[in-house]
Every structure is written in C-alpha cells, then in structure tokens.
Amino acid sequence: MQQKDTGIVLHTLKYNDTSLIIEMYTSLLGRSSYIAPLPRSKKSKVKTSLFQPLSLIEFEATSNPKGGLHRLKEVKPYQTFASLPYDPYKSAIALFLAEFLYRAIREEGQNAPLFHYILHSIEWLDSCTGGFANFHLVFLMRLSRFLGLYPNIEDYTEGSRFDLLNATFSTDTRTPHSHYINIEESAQFYQLMRMNYDTMHLFKMNRQQRFRCLELINEYYRLHLPDFPTLKSLDVLKGLFD
Question: Are residues 182 and 196 in contact, defined by beta-carbon separation less than 8 angstroms?
Fold first, then answer.
C-alpha cells in the first residue's frame, strides 16, 4: 500500500552498495524504518542529500504489512532550510539531537504532540538569528514531558538538591544512593527547567556550566530509559558556545 507522510530524519545507514536505510520519526507512524535505493543519476526521485540529521521531508512509501522496512518511492523537502545545514553551530546541535532522538524514542505508532514538538523546534532553530546557545538543553528538558520523564520541580527550594533517580528536589541530607547532584548544580538544573525558546537567552551560562548541564541531562535519560547509551556526538558540543 502506498502512503504519503512527513518525516524527521534521525539516522541513516548504508546497506550493501545499493541501498540506504533511514530511521525517521513520522507524522503517521511514529518511529519507522525505510529503505531507499542509492541514486544512480541526477534524475533520481530519492536523493541522499535529503537525509541529513533532522532534515524535514515529505515522502511516498510502500508500506510493509509485516512491519520492518518500508520502501521509499519519492522524497522531497518539507521545507527549505534557511540556516540549519550551513551554520556549523546549528549543524552540530542537529547532529547531536538527531542521535539523541534516535536512541531515546522507541515507540511506534502516531504521537501527534511529540511529532509537532520536534517539528516546531527544528523550525525555530533554523529561523533564529542568535541567542540559541541553550537550545539543545531546553529541547531535551521539554522532550522529557512527551516521554513521561519530566522532573517534579514543585518541591524546589533554595538549598535543595536534585535526585536524578527519583526526578525530584529534596533538602534531605541523607543519600540512599549516589545519583544526587550538588546544591549549585541543582539550582542551575532548576533554572534550566524554567526556560523556553523565547526566554533562554536571558539565562547566562558559560561553556563549562552548559556542558555540565548536558552531562546531567544525558545521565538523567540513562537512568530512566533502558539501554540508553553514551552518545558519540556528545563531545561534538564540548567546544561550542564560549
């Protein structure tokens, strides 16, 4: 059965010398896998340049009724990016977030709120002209809402510590496990949870603080998602945004 859909590219893998396997998060099917022939001419309807990290595409595919790989027939851009592929900072963020989403989102089936959140976020990053150094941090914290992992911030008070394992703040000095972060980092983590794309430029962090927050977010997901790995692209962001 032929089906038209919109997808967000998360991961690609060359298969033999003839095909490409593409993992996408789609509007209708959620997390889905596709296979496409490698183009042999400029007239090919499926161009590999369309499958960059977080690319937004419209496509037509033949569905596999038994599950597994669907076969892409025709692909075109959902929209033309203004800056995302050309700005090295934005490209590094896209590479990291694509890998993160590839590892974090396991569900199949339609989830319109999650799809539109990711779509809107990519469009926002592409269109913004500055003040996006905290974008990936805000994106990941807000993503946790859609995955059922958002921390409880109602219990935060000055001097409390954040419990990564139980996703809550506490002033209790007893530590039944080692997954607490210190008071200063907990305050920064709480501040991060209050940011959104429009206000995040008002919250100042240096490169060291930003990367520490990223490490803590990564650890938080590792504690709450089974088999969530250490991301290869994590170090790509290490030297950005002084």
Answer: no
Task: Provide the 10 A C-beta neighbour count for residue 215.
Answer: 13
The β-bridge relationship of strands 56-62 and 30-37 is unpaired
Q: DSSP character for 152?
A: B
Instruction: Count CB neighbours of 184 within 10 A.
Output: 10
Q: What are phi and psi of 100, to 5 degrees?
A: -60, -50
Q: Quick check: 23 and 104 in contact, CB under 8 A?
A: no
Tell me, what DSSP letter sits at residue 206? -
Local confidence band at 63 (pLDDT 50, 70, 90 cut-offs): confident
Residues 100 and 34: their CA atoms lie apart, in Å, by 19
DSSP 59-115: EEEE--TTSS-EEEEEEEESS--SSTTT-HHHHHHHHHHHHHHHHH---BS--HHHH
Confidence of residue 38 (pLDDT cuts 50, 70, 90): confident
Q: Is the pLDDT of residue 237 over 80?
A: no
Strands 168-170 and 161-163: antiparallel
Q: Compute the C-alpha angle 191/193/195, nearest 5°.
A: 75
Per-residue pLDDT tens for 11-25? Answer: 999 888 889 999 999
| Class of residue 148 by CB neighbours under 10 A (exposed 0-12, middle 13-18, buried 19+) | exposed
In this structure, the strands spanning 70-77 and 56-62 are: antiparallel
Scanning the chain, the segments in alpha helix (DSSP H) are 88-104, 112-127, 135-146, 183-193, 207-224
- How many residues comprise the chain? 242
